[in-house]
Every structure is written in structure tokens, then in C-alpha cells.
Amino acid sequence: MIAARILVLGGLLLSPALADPQGGAPSVLDRSPTEWSAAESGHWKDWDADTRPPEAVQPYLLRSIAAYRRGDRPAALRALFELLEIAPDYPSALHQAGILYFQLRRHGDAITALERYLAVAPHRVGDTRTLAHAYYSLGRYDDALAHYARVLSVHPESAEAHHGQGLSLMRLGQSTAALQELRRTLELDPAHASAAFWIAQIHFDEERLEDAVAAAEHARDLDPFGPRVWFLLGQVLFELERDDEAEAAKARFDELNRLDAAVRAIESSLVFDPYQPALYRELCRLHREAGDDLALRQALRRWSSVDPAGAAAAAEPASAK
Amino acid sequence: MMGPAHSIDLSMILFLLLGAGPAATPGQGHPLFRARDLRAGEEVIELVCGGADKDYILEVNGGGLVVADFDLDGHLDLVTVNGSTIDRVRAGKEALPSVLWLGNGSGEFRRGGPEWKLAGGVWGMGGTAGDIDADGDPDLVITEWGRNRVFLNEGGKGFRAVEASGLTGDHWSTSCALLDHDADGKLDLVVINYLEFDLETAAGPGGACRWKGHDVMCGPEGLTPTHDQLFRGNGDGTFVDVSVKSGFRPEKACFGLGVMTLDYDRDGDTDLYVSNDSMPNHLWENQGDGRFVEVGWRRGVSHDSNGREQAGMGIGCADVDGDGRSDLFVTNFSGESNALYRSSRKTGFREKADVARLGGPSIQRLGWGTGMWDYDLDGFIDVSVINGHVYPAADLVGTDTSYAQADQLFLGGPEQRFAERALSSATAGVGRASVSADFDGDGDLDLVVVQMGGPVRFLENRADGIEGRHWFSLTLSATASHPDAIGAHVRVQVGDASYTGEVRTTAGYQAGCSTRLHFGLGAAETLDEVRIEWPSGRVQVLEDVAVNQHLRVTEETE
């Protein structure tokens, strides 16, 4: 069912005329979802995510998606603001706005949008994992825990929801239950590096050092370019008095952390304004330096969506190599 | 702590076709502290740190506080360290005057006379006090954006500025602390430095930098950090820079903001913990011979548990879990969690802020001054956190925080879990440095808090009114080491419970605390034992000590 809807909309998305003419103008970032007017109670009670949207809202939705695909979240959000003016509380727009706000790291706004989505479409709780993420990001671990449980009641095999549940439990000091959730995450998604990392962290916190090493090495194998696992691995190895290995882990951490900090700085700029080819160029350079081919390809793909020629030129050395 | 790397199900976006959130839950219950503007008679005490718009990073740190009994009348006094404005600096004017306010022991202050004059400087930041020349009275150090200054106390009658103190380097210094790092009986000084700031070249108004999509002033990222400094004291108010010689020099300079002295490994010498803004925090392990080795990463106090550098600001230090070892609390930026580094069974630490319920409530706040004391006298260490953002733009939409913020009190309890409670009756403010002391002599610890753009706040603790809450405090005078006994370790035993404290002169962020130790005791009627480990290594034990008293103890000679 999901794939079918993507096809329907994907065809529309290919039209270049749908591109947002205003580019990444930031004014929408000065607005708040509390501005949105409300629909009459029960107005969207028959709304169904499976059906095609009303004609009136389609251009806005498509503009939003096109902008999103370019990585232009402000433009995507602006289209949704316009949509919600003509169709207050249109559920899909609230949901998409919530996700965009979360990606913009505006967690409070994400909560506003997604709680409102749930208010108009209470049967769609399974779509709102991001709401739990947002609670978590603001340190509202009890709320996050409760909401992950709601999502899991609909999607019991959601690895991400189990992962979030595990992290929330860990933050609340319920480490045994947290371990169970994180292990369940790995059962559902054996490549889930973050779950493996936090299992290692819990073992370390509880002084099970040998278990921590094994779990950290597993996490490192799953995500060898993530600095934090090298950080943890080094600390555990130090406590085990395996100093040479610990020093090697620290050296790798220092190298990856330096690159990661630079990547994060670039991403925090691109998330608000993707039309910065120079930043994509630097991003690709950093990923190349780390040796992270997967991240490099993803960065090139994103760069290509705003600057195809530049991205193609930058990709050539990698191809030739 | 950053948010988890939660992945967003992007297919869901297509599948569904496609205010600021509520503030963190406020503390519950009646505030323990009653807030009022700090006054000296009719004079409202205010500090200045730049203008309201905060166009430059120089304008955001706020002023400082230093507590000691400067006039030797038995009552604690307070120095407020004042800053300046960009216009004053451009005009070549000196800093607005720092002032000594003489306490009368009941929470009231009067302005010190001209003999206590502290004029001069460029832009004051913080400070500390101790008997630098060992003549029986507390002297004063003031940190500056500019040359740091030393004032010797002339027998409780007034200050005399030391013209050639040897505190070299016109840096931007923030916090400082006195210690005897080489056990030579003379007080040494550690000075924490922030960054190189040149008003002529600094990016100014217009918001050259962006945060959460909003224009803000620049820094510290992109600016040049400055190395911290360790000065060996000559015992006469002059110092010699021994930073390199002592090993107190990391590979890379950092944006230093806070400092704490502690004997983290309980080997009898004084170690140093330094909080750095947006860079790893440092733990400097004293090797016992006057040399230091940096072990922050190895001991688990340099980063958060995600391996991320945080914007370290203030530092609190106390033994939360009663294991006899110091734990550390560090305040951080909004969007990050404050950190509680609890000593582990070995010599390392584990970051436990969330489990202790100190993490989540801090994420939407930007913390500065912090104190770890038993404010409500129930026998458990509590944590005070003074909050306020650096960016006025924090009040714009989508920041998940605000410029003015409520301060927080976390009351300690069994199993090292804390319960948040409103700190005081004050409205939200833009807080900075803070210091705890029993200014009104009622046995509980009051707070003084620096506010940006407003009066200094005095928070009167009302725990003394709670039935069945007892306390004990003491001042130590060493005879076989420097008289201030900095680094002395005290353990108070009451039945099965023990409480520990360490003598120091720093309150963690741009503030100097009194060397008095203070313990909350709950319902205990008497102290079974007070065990003092002096810096000389001698151990002195007092038995059957009465509660609710301030005791002065002099080191016994053998």
C-alpha cells in the first residue's frame, strides 16, 4: 500500500514546474504552528490517509514534497503553512509539518504539530513515532516512553520505536528493561548500530566491562565511522587496563570526532538553507577523509538535488578512482 | 546531551502526503528560597556586562561574586565583580567599579568604604579569595578581560592593590581558584581563560552568525581559545607562571569557563577540573610533585555519554552518594543535558544525570552557576542551577528555550535521585554566576545570584524553619600547611550516614566561595565523629560534637 501511494504521487513530483519559486526564503522560520487556525470539530473525522487528497490542497502538498526532496525544508514548510490556511488542520499537512520541524530541530514545534495531528486523526497514532522522538529530545522521557508504547501497540515490530523505548527507559534508570528493548531492536534490525552502542553503554555504566567491550565492538562493526563508539570503547578498555588498545581507540575517536564536528556544523546550516554548494563540497571532502563511502554517496545525492553540475563534477574523482 | 539519532521514516512522509513547545515541567512545591534584590540600605546592587542586545560574545558572561570575611568581624562579606560596556571600552574608560559589600551576619550589607576601593580594570569577570600572604586575612583576586588583579587585605582594614602581581597575560579570564598545588605552604592560583577577543576585529551587530535559523552574535566557535594558566604563589601577593613547567598545558587551548579544585583520587593532593565551552572538559591529576597530567577522557569526565563535547559552564562538586569521593555536576548549553559525573568504584566517573533526574529538566535551559550543598538540611546533597540564555534571540520562535529562564533546585534523596522544585519566589531571569553561603547566620545556605540586566539577587534560604532539620559548619585553620587548609577533607559521621566535604575557594563559575564547610544533618541530634584530613596528611578526630553550631578547628600540632 505504501509503495502504491508513492507511485501515484511520485509521478506528480517529477514535474519541474512544481518547484517552489521562492527558494529557501526563511520567513516561515519566524512563524509558529500556534498560528494555525483550527478546523471545526470533527471536520476531518472521515479523513483517510489512503485516499487521494482533495484537489485544492494537492498543489501545496506537491510543492512541499518537491521542496523536501531538494532538502529545502523551509520551502516545504511554507507550502504547508499556505495549505493550512485554506484547509485548516488538514491531517497530512500537520503530520508532514511535524516531521519537518523535528528535522529542523524545532522540537517544541514538532510536538505542537504532531499532537494536533493526533487530535484530528486519533486513529493514526502509528504514524507518530516522531512525536515520541521530539518528547525525548526535549528531555521529556516519561512522555516519550508513554508515546513509544502507543506506537508499539500499533506497530509492535517497529525497530525504531523499540529503540526509542529502550533509550527512554535507560534515561529513566530502568536499565534492565532498556536492555530488553534494545536487544529487541537488534532482533528486528540486526544492523541497528545505535541499539548496539547503547547496550554497550548500559553494560559500562553497570560495570560489566567485558560485556561492554563485546557490545561496543559489535556497534563499531556496524558503524565504524561513528565517533561515539570509539569513545566508549576507549573508556572501557582503559578500565580493563588494556591501555594500548584504549589509546588506539582514542586516536580513532579523535580523528572521527574532528570530522564529525565539522559535518554537524555543516548540516546545521544546510538544514535551514540547502542552496550552499560550497558546503556540500566540504561535506563530501569530510566524508572522503573519513573513508565513509556510504555517507559520501548520500551527500553527493543531496548536493545533486540543488546543484547537479557541481555534484557531478565532484563525483568524478570518486568514480575514476 | 544531544537527541538520539532517531531515524525518520521518510516513506511515511510520502505515505501521508504529504510554538514553541511547552516549557520543561516546572518544579513542584513551595520554593525553598525567598528572593529579593540585593541592597545596601537603599542602594540596589547591580552589575553591568555590556548592553541588552548582546552583539558581542564579550557581553554574555556576566559579572562575578566573591565571599569571605574580609573585615574579620565574623560575618561573611561579598565582592561583586563588575564588567563594562562596549562604549566604555571604546572610550578607553576603566571597568565599572567592583565593590566590597560588608555583611552584618543577618543578610544585610553596607558598601565598604574608600579603604576597600577596587577601582580599575577593564572588564571584570570573576574572582576568588584566600589568605595569599598568610597574614591572617583573606585577600582577593579579580579576573578580567584584561590584566587580572590582586588585592591584599591589610588586616581587615582595607585592600591594597598589588601593582606587579606577576599575573601575566592580558587574556580574557573567567574563573579562578586558589590552591597549594605543590604543597609548599604558599597559595597558588589557577586562572581559566576563555578566548582571544579583539573589539576591533570582532564580528559585531548584524548577526554574522546563525543559531536555530536566527541571527546571533558569533562565538566561541570560530574564535581562538586561550590557554589556562597556573601561577605559583610567592606568598607575598606575587606569582610566577608555571603553567608549562607544571604540565598544566593541554595540547590544544580550550574555551575555559569554570574551575573546581578537588582531590578526585583521594591521594592527598589537589586536582583540578576545568569546564570548557564546546570543547572537552579537563581533569588535571596532580602527580604529588607539583606536576599535572590531564586525564579527563580517561576518567570519563570530558564528554557526554554520546562522546560529544558540551558547552561546559559552571561546576558543582560534592559527594552525592556518600562513597567518600567527589562527584561533579556541570551545567551546559540549551539543547544539551547538564552532566552529573559520579565517581565509580575505580577512579573513573560515570555520567548519571538522567538516572539522577537531573538531565531531562535541563535540556531547555542554559545553566551557569551551580551549587551542590544540602540546602534543605535533610542530609542529602541538593543541586541549585542558575539559568539564562546567551542569546536574546532565544525568545524567537522555534528555539525550544527562552532568554530569561527559571532557576532550578533539585532536592536530593535516597538512591541519588533528585526531585525538581522551584528554587525561589523570583520570576524568570537571565542568571549567571552564583555562590552559596550562610549570610544571615541561621544555619542554612543562602544564595547570591548575578542577573544580566538587573539587580543581583539575594535568595534567603528558609530551611531553618523546617522542624527537625539540623546542620553543622566549620572553618579550618591549618598549622602544618597553608592556614586556609585548602584541600582539607572532612568526614562527618552520624550513625550509619557519613557526609564529606573539601575546603576550596571556588564556586565553579566566576565566583569564589567561603572556605567554610557546611553539612545538613536531618534529624541527627549529635555528631558521632568529625574526621579531618589536613593537607599536611595529619588526621584529627573530634567526637560527640553538637549540631547547629559553627566550629573553628585549628590543626593539632604533634
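The domain at 191-270 of chain A is CATH 1.25.40.10 (Serine Threonine Protein Phosphatase 5, Tetratricopeptide repeat).
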